[in-house]
Amino acid sequence: MDNSTLGSLDDIFLEYAENSLPSRPQTGVLYNASLPSNFTGVNVSIIRLRRDSFWRKGANYSGFYMPPRIFSLPNFTRLDMVFSNLGNMSSYYYSVPNYSLVAPVVGFNAYGSRNSTGQFGNLTTAMTKLNLTLFGGPILVQFPNFSLPQNEKPKCVVFYLNGTVEMTNMTLQDMCAVQDQGHFSIVVPHPTLVPHAPKEKEKGQLWKWWVFGFAIGVLGLLFFGFVIFIIVRTFRMRKLEKMEKEGERNEALGATNVGQSRMPLASAVRTQPTIENDYHP
């Protein structure tokens, strides 16, 4: 959407919001604007505040927390705050290249209130957009109907009328800190253009498979070692049995026939007697 359209959109919201005010609006009361059917799903509201009270107390309306000590120029006794929530029409008016909106575009603008006394004491009926200077800290923006996808790194985004976009990191779970009036939302990298890191669930599954594989490997090594032990032990036992059989075979007694029976015969040689001298009795 071009800049002139966005500027005209703010003007349209201001017109409908001002027309929704009663003839004697109460200070500090939020009034909802009645919009035509082509803005179905869009919410616009307006509140009138006293400038000195706004300076001392700040304001907290429509998801915007404005701290005390916000200075507004030009100097009007009263000011009108117009709040907008584009709802399901957010992506029609605003977009960020390579990013997707995950929250509706919300915004606010401050105007010098109608029929209020200007800085020179004159009665004015023209609506003047005010410039805000923050001395008491940033304005906090809370987004309604906001659900952040898991494992995403959201960014706060500010849309300016000149077409530029500024992105900052979120400091709170569902809020953005901003320094001026305008339009704001939350974006995440587009899933088709920016690669994502592995999901936590996938990481957990990979870790479980790694542990399972490690356990299987350890059991496999133990089984392989046991098989090797059995083979070596069996080989040694067979070798010992073979050696024992060879020993028994070498020490076997001779055999001879005695009658009709075959009897073992020792092969030992008896020691022959020797004569100690040549004397014979």
From TrEMBL:
TM segment ranges: 209-232
Q: Which GO terms describe its cellular component?
A: membrane
User: Per the record's keyword annotation, is Ubl conjugation included, yes or no?
Assistant: no
A Pfam family the protein falls into: DUF1191
> What keyword terms does UniProt attach to this protein?
Membrane, Transmembrane, Transmembrane helix
Query: What protein is this chain from?
Result: Malectin-like domain-containing protein
- Which species is this record about? Lactuca virosa
